[in-house]
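Structure ticket #2291
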Amino acid sequence: MGEKKRKEQQKAQTEFIFGKKNYQFMLLGIAFIALGFILMAGGGSDDPNVFNPEIYSWRRIRLAPAIILIGFGIEVYAILLNPKK
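Resolution: structure written out below.
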């Protein structure tokens, strides 16, 4: 009786919390977040006395934050996804 219970506990310890599908969605979400931060980067000026209006481009103000929020949404979905279904 004790041997069977110990084997069940060892099996339960080796299982991952999330399934393969969860981890795939997590990687997709991380990719979206990284892409958003890459799109947001740049646009500055090397000389602090020179103003570069490129910092206020549509890509940095609208697109990049939207992609980051989509990435966070994918991460929440990945965590809440039930791999058993």
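Closing remark: The helical segments are 2-14, 20-40, 58-80.
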